[in-house]
Write a structure and sequence with these properties.
Order of helices and strands: HHEEEEEEHEHEEEEHHHEHEEEHH
Number of strands: 15
Distance between the termini: 24 Å
Number of helices: 10
Structural class: alpha+beta
């Protein structure tokens, strides 16, 4: 029996009423969010603000008033390394549109027409020697300001980018510095632009939703195949949680295979990839190209091996009414978000190795 996946919304707003028909279109693509940020930043360091203004500013869609209407936000640390840390919320939505931003820009967003089916909090350490990518499962059962309890991905449907930021800040007490929303075409385009990517699958699994059998062994994936791999949910032992692990493993492999190797050999590709993917990203209107350039310079020594990938601690899955949900682990969650706020993620990951995404996943 199919499990409904939609918040209680007015008749005109049904975030998941078309989930079956649109399931093949859902791009579980956290990697593009981090790549957009890193590619923008690397290109800024290489070519300067003028190039950014000419090539990036004209392509990037801006999300107006993402933060301006928010009140009672977590305080930004004013001293120590935490004051220099940067927290970027990266979203991937499940609605296609004629615009290359998947309806992410505010003028194109309509209540009930999209959900943030991929959600990452990217934490850049204050000393820029390491970074952490924390996945928040889309079905996490949380408080949505003004709407009561619900799945975290409903926030985007109810109130767009601004409510999503408010919801994440409420659940984490972490102040979000910037927001990026990515479309699924960008994911495919990047994978194809670099000639595909190699992924190792340790055991054969079936994807009944798409009629695909993934044989154990190494696979070379193009953009379309990569989408099928990272969005699979059914047929995996732990469903959404396994899918998150796949996304993070793919992201790690992509960064190692591409940014760490090929782009070092051919740095001019950074410019091509940046131009390509700035067409597929929407960012908050407070994030200027000047800020991107400065952040790029501070990240010049960051390597793919310095990035940790993990999922917010959970107590497994369950049911709330007709909704299949992921239950968060309050005590461990508090410790995690405290480590983010205090810029102690290196120490925290050393003590919580069980939450790190392994190199090879199903």
């Amino acid at each position: 029996m199919a499990i409904l996946d939609h918040p209680p919304v007015p008749p005109q707003s049904d975030p998941a009423g078309e989930s079956t028909a649109r399931g093949w279109r859902r791009a579980r693509k956290p990697l593009i969010g981090l790549l957009i940020c890193l590619l923008l930043l690397c290109a800024a360091a290489l070519t300067g603000i003028l190039w950014l203004q000419a090539k990036v500013e004209g392509n990037l869609q801006r999300l107006p008033d993402t933060f301006s209407g928010l009140t009672d936000r977590p305080a930004k640390p004013t001293s120590g390394s935490a004051a220099d840390a940067v927290n970027i919320l990266v979203l991937g939505t499940d609605t296609r549109s004629d615009a290359p931003t998947t309806g992410a820009e505010a003028p194109g967003w309509e209540p009930g027409q999209a959900r943030s089916d991929t959600m990452l909090l990217v934490h850049l350490d204050g000393d820029r020697r390491s970074a952490s990518v924390v996945s928040i499962p889309r079905d996490s059962w949380v408080d949505i300001p003004g709407h009561g309890k619900g799945k975290v991905n409903w926030a985007y449907s109810f109130g767009g980018p601004s409510l999503t930021v408010e919801t994440v800040e409420t659940m984490t007490d972490v102040r979000i510095d910037h927001l990026a929303v990515i479309d699924w075409d960008g994911f495919k385009a990047l994978t194809d632009a670099i000639g595909g990517i190699d992924i190792y699958i340790p055991e054969t699994v079936e994807d009944p939703a798409h009629g695909i059998r993934w044989e154990a062994g190494r696979h070379h994936l193009d953009g379309d195949q990569a989408l099928l791999y990272v969005r699979q949910r059914y047929g995996l032992r732990d469903g959404d949680l396994d899918r998150v692990a796949r996304q993070q493993a793919f992201l790690r492999t992509l960064l190692q295979q591409t940014l760490h190797q090929e782009l070092r050999k051919h740095p001019e590709q950074v410019l091509d990839l940046l131009t390509l993917f700035s067409k597929h990203a929407s960012v908050d209107d407070d994030w200027s190209t000047t800020q991107m350039a400065k952040l790029a310079a501070s990240l010049r020594n960051l390597r793919s091996g310095d990035i940790s990938y993990l999922t917010v601690p959970t107590d497994g899955t369950g049911m709330v009414g007709d909704q299949s949900v992921v239950r968060l682990d309050p005590s461990r969650d508090r410790d995690l978000w405290r480590a983010v706020r205090e810029d102690r993620m290196g120490e925290w990951t050393e003590d919580n190795q069980d939450l790190l995404t392994p190199d090879v996943v199903r």
